Amino acid sequence: AVIVLNMIWESVFGGSLKQGLEDAVDTTVLADVPIIAIYFSAHWCTPCRRFTPKLKSFYNAINETEKKLEIIFVSGDKNEKAYERYYKTMPWLGLPFESPKSILLKSALQVSSIPTLAFFDGATGALLNLNGVDYITSGPDEDNFPEELVAQDQSVFEILGDHVESKDGPVDVESLKTSGVIGLYFSAHWCKPCHLFTPQLIEFYNESHDDGFEVVFVSKGSEQEEYEKYYSNMPWHTIPIGDPRAELLVKKYKNKGIPQLVLIDSQDGTLISTNGVQGVKSGLSNAFPWPDKAVNSMDFFNSSDINKCSCFFVVDPELTDEHVQIIENIGSELTSEWGPFQYLKFYYGKDQAILEKLRSLVGLDGAFTVIVNLQANQKFIYNGNLEDHEQLKQWITSYTNGESTPENIK
Questions:
Q1: Strand 16-19 and strand 23-26: pairing?
Q2: 322: CB partners within 8 A, 6+ apart
Q3: Which residue pairs, CB below 8 angstroms and at least 24 apart, start in 358-365?
Q4: pLDDT (tens digit, 9 = 90+) per residue, 306-337?
Q5: In this structure, are residues 103 and 373 in contact, taking their beta carbons and an 8 Å threshold?
Q6: What is the pTM for the complete model shown?
Q7: What's the confidence (pLDDT) of residue 254?
Q8: pLDDT tens-digit map of 290-312
Q9: H or E stretch including 277?
Q10: Which residue, among 396, 397, 393, 383, has the nearest Cα to 330 in the 3D structure?
Q11: Which residues contact 56 (CB under 8 A, 6 or more apart)?
Q12: How far apart are CA 363 and CA 41, in angstroms?
C-alpha cells in the first residue's frame, strides 16, 4: 500500500519537496499521512495573507498528537524573493518556486482564484473537498476531522434542499427526481452569449421535457428587476437571485464562464455532463444527455475550457477513424490514471469553424498536434507520428511530468 501511495504523490509533486527554505525531503515522507492538502496561495494576495494564519493554527492543532494532515504549498508569487518571504512563515511542505508542477496542478484542478485549498485522501489520492478555504474559515471541529471535512462536500440535492421556484410557486425537489435528467443552467441577463443561447435551450427543452428533462435556472446576475425580466421568458424552474444555493452550485461544479448547462442524473445526482451547451448547439439530440468523455470532437469544445485548464488538440483535415481511435484510447488511459488531477482536456477536429481561431492562437497551419496552456501562455508542439500510440502517450506523459520545454504563445 505504501508503494502505491508513494507513486500517487510522486507523480503529482515529483520526487522531492521543500521543507522550509533550506531543506528538501523525499516525497515518500507523505507515506501513511491520512489527509494531503494542496494550498494555492501567494504573498501578493491580501486574502491569502489573512487566511494563512488560520490555516497554520488548524494545521498545528490537528497534528498536535499525531500526523493527520500534510499541506503542500503551491506558490503563485511572481519572484523567488516574495516566495521565500511568504513560505518561511509556513510550517508545512512546499513545491520549489520554479517547479513546473505548480502550473500543471493549477490547471489540473482548474484553480482560478486564490487562496484555494484542496483536500485529498492520502492513500488513494481521491479528492475530498475542493473548498477547503470555506471549511477552515467556518471554524471546523478539530475532533471531527476528517469526517466533517468530507461531509461538507454536499450533494446537489443537499444543496437544492426541499424546493426550487417556478412561476407558479415552489416546486418540491423530490418531484424533479422522477424526470431522468436535470439541467442546471448557469446564465445571466447581462451575458450576450446567454441571450443568444437561451432560445435554443428553450426549443430543446420543449422538445425533450416530456421525455424526462427538467431545467433549473441558476442566475449569476445581481439585479432583481433584470433577473425577473430574463426569467420571464424561461419555461423551467429557478433558484431566486441572491439565494446562497446558487453560489454553492457554482463552487460545486467549478462554474466559471456562462452560459453553462450542467446535466445531472435525477435519481442520484451524479454528474453526467458539463457540456450541455455544446450538446444543444450540436443538434445531436439523439446523443442526449451527451455524457462527459475523456476525448471529444471539436463539435463539443467548450471555449471556457481553454481559459481554465490545459487542452490537447489534434487538428487534421484528413483525420481518419483510426487516428481518432488512437486519441480516444490514449485519452481514456491517461485520464483514468490521473484521477482527480485532470491535466488535459482532449479534443480532435477536422474542419470545424472554431479551428480557425485555434490556428490563429497557436500560430500553426495545416495539420498539427499541440498542448495549449493559456493560463501560462504556453504551447507544446508534437512532431512525432500520430499513429504511434506509445510515442504519443509518452510525449503527453512528459508534459504532465513537467519535463517538456514550452514555447510562448505570441
A1: antiparallel
A2: 387
A3: 358/313, 358/315, 359/315, 361/409, 362/409, 363/409, 363/410, 364/315
A4: 888 899 999 999 999 999 999 999 999 999 99
A5: yes
A6: 0.84
A7: 83
A8: 998 889 999 888 777 888 889 99
A9: helix 276-282
A10: 393
A11: 89, 90, 91
A12: 33
Environment class of residue 119 by beta-carbon count within 10 Å: exposed (0-12), middle (13-18) or buried (19+)?
buried
* Angstrom distance (rounded) from CA 324 to CA 343: 20
Question: Are the C-beta atoms of residues 156 and 183 closer than 8 Å to each other?
Answer: no
The chain-wide mean pLDDT, for the chain, equals 92
User: Could you tell me which of 349, 277, 362 has the C-alpha nearest to residue 315?
Assistant: 349
Location of C-alpha cell 508513494 = 6
Cα–Cα distance measured from residue 223 to residue 196, given in angstroms and rounded to the nearest whole number: 20
Please identify which residue in the block is written with the cell numbers 425537489: 173
C-alpha distances out from residue 323 to 19, 220, 350, 366, Å: 45, 40, 11, 16
Whether the Cβ atoms of residue 261 and residue 217 lie closer than 8 Å to each other? no
CB 402 within 8 A of CB 99: yes
What's the CA gap between 29 and 6, in Å, rounded? 9
Tell the residue number behind the cell numbers 501511495, with chain if given. Answer: 5
pLDDT digits over 63-77, tens only? 999 999 999 999 999
| Helices 101-108 and 2-13, axial angle in degrees (round to 10) | 100
The pLDDT value given to residue 7: 62
d(CA 171, CA 215): 12
Pairwise CA distance, residues 118 & 238, whole Å: 30
Distance CA 182, CA 268 (A): 11
- Residue written as grid cell 491520512: 34
As a whole number of angstroms, the distance between CA 395 and CA 401 comes to 10
C-alpha cell at 205: 427543452
What's the DSSP call for residue 404? P
Q: Is the pLDDT of residue 17 over 70?
A: yes
CA dihedral of residues 331, 332, 335, 337 (deg, nearest 10)? -120
pLDDT at 8: 82
Summarised one tens digit per residue, pLDDT across range 243-272 is 999 999 998 888 888 999 999 999 999 999
Q: Residues 201, 235: contact at Cβ < 8 Å? A: no
Distance of CA 241 to the CA centre of its chain: 25
pLDDT of amino acid 1: 36
Euclidean distance between CA atoms 178 and 209, whole angstroms = 12
Contacts of 178 (CB under 8 A, 6+ apart): 266
- Is the peptide bond between 291 and the residue preceding it cis, with omega within 30 degrees of 0? no
Judged by DSSP in three states, 308 sits in helix
